[in-house]
Model the fold of this input.
Amino acid sequence: MSVAAHREVVLVHSSDLHLGTDNSFGSSCSSDALSVLRGVLVTATAVRADLLILAGDTFDHNRQPSALLDRAARIMGEFCAPIVILPGNHDPLTPDSVYRRAELGAPSNVCVLGLTIAEAAVFPGLGIEVWGRAHLDYSDMSPLVRPRSRSTRWQLAVAHGHYVEEPDVPGRFLGSWLIRSDDLIATGADYVALGHWNTAARVGDKQINAYYSGSPDYAGTVNVVRLQRDGAVEVTRIGVTH
Ligand SMILES: [Mn+2]
Done:
């Protein structure tokens, strides 16, 4: 049996940090521009997270100063566990993406889905894989299309988009990057980490654990996911230290 089978695995899931937003107080070059990131990392450290997932829009836009990106990379590199980053609609993997410009994928503990790894980050020591489709540009896409088959004890999906319950009515515009209940179920994942909403919410059918974390600023929390030895998945929220 693997090591992972013998103990609980703890994940922290956050999204929509929007680092470097033009609306933040003070200059985006100030150290305050990264206080939300520091808060999430401190909180994840406090709950002894084995893995941190950032489900999109970690940065507010791709026009960030290099100094801010370098500092963010250094802060992430000092975190005690792996970090999986999914590029969202605000920080997609365009040629001028923050993830291509900076050395954000350089720290050995940081994975950028779609860039430093193809579509899944696998952590054999934890018995976990995290798969997700990065936003490659600003156009519409289907965040959970073609779900990946499970290859590890625990499978997590990460997606950045807008969950809708309404049926698809031709000619009616519901928005972009839509996620539907059937998409969530089709993942077969133990947990689906969602981003794009500022509020924390569980969505979809109760047969699947699909949660938005909300932004740490607006929701004031991150999701703590405990993958328990007996196979149960416990999801709670904890306040972000500022
Ligand atoms: Mn978004």
Notes: Residues 94 and 166 are 31 Å apart (CA to CA). The longest strand covers residues 154-160.
